[in-house]
Q: What sequence folds into this?
């Protein structure tokens, strides 16, 4: 094989190694991104849960507005919005597409206060306490919320967080295995070079050094490509889920990118170290097996 062909083959090997590393790190980064944002997603979902406080028909508006202020000051409330009978009728008219008030001759709807929960209180146990407290107000006729939905979201948030954690660990092991195999194949192709350097008296540390330096560069290059792909992925998500996922939390994004770089460098370095050591221990005859 000519020198030019050998260099071309070597460059192709490097490119394959970097691409393999970058794709594995990209997948690992996606899971990491979702896991780091799991709490934020949970807060977003919980803060969009709420309940409706139906007001007695004989309650005075001044008393209802006072109740609204009390609720807004409560620790379990993110926001409370008062909707009077006319506003409720207008909303229902728009939804139905016809004037039911004119048809019935009166407005049967009750005034209400729409409440959005603070995330820490969006669970079945807390909601039961909140309901008991609010129903005690004389202006309140009923507290309405979807109990089954609240139970389902509470359970599913915990389940999804656990699944993401388990999946992250499994993917990390897969990433280590794939990158390790890629590095071992790369070192295997240069096993005779390692043996030749040993025969001319080079120390193990001297032989390992260029391989380890290249492994760090490969890990850094693979992590850089993975970060570019992740940035595109996050940008795409941010357009679909504005305010929930995206680049708004700079600390989390920076932490994720740093983790990807560290994992890329550490795995390639350790894989190269052990792969080179393997061939340093073999004699010339064993290299052919």
A:
């Amino acid at each position: 094989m000519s020198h030019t062909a050998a260099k071309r083959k070597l460059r192709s090997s490097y490119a394959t190694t970097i691409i393999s590393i970058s794709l594995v790190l990209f997948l690992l980064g996606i899971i990491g991104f979702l896991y780091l944002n799991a709490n934020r997603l949970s807060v977003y979902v919980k803060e969009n849960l709420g309940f409706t406080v139906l007001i007695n028909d004989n309650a005075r508006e001044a008393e209802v507005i006072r109740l609204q202020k009390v609720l807004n000051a409560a620790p379990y409330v993110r926001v409370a919005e008062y909707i009077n009978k006319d506003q409720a009728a207008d909303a229902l008219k728009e939804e139905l597409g016809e004037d039911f008030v004119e048809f019935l001759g009166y407005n049967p709807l009750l005034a209400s206060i729409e409440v959005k929960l603070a995330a820490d209180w969006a669970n079945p146990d807390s909601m039961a306490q909140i309901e008991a407290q609010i129903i005690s107000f004389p202006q309140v006729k009923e507290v309405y919320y979807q109990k089954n939905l609240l139970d389902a979201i509470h359970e599913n948030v915990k389940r999804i967080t656990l699944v993401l954690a388990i999946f992250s660990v499994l993917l990390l092991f897969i990433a280590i295995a794939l990158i390790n195999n890629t590095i071992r194949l790369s070192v295997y192709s240069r096993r005779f070079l390692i043996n030749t350097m040993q025969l001319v008296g080079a120390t193990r540390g001297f032989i390992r050094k260029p391989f380890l330096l290249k492994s760090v560069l490969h890990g850094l290059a693979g992590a850089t490509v993975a970060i570019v792909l992740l940035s595109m992925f996050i940008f795409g998500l941010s357009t679909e889920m504005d305010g929930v996922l995206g680049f708004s939390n700079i600390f989390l994004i920076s932490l994720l990118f740093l983790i990807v770089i560290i994992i890329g460098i550490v795995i390639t370095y350790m894989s190269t170290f052990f792969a080179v050591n393997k061939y340093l221990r073999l004699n010339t005859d064993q290299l052919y097996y």
Notes: The CA atoms of residues 10 and 211 lie 13 Å apart. The longest strand covers residues 77-83. The mean pLDDT is 80.
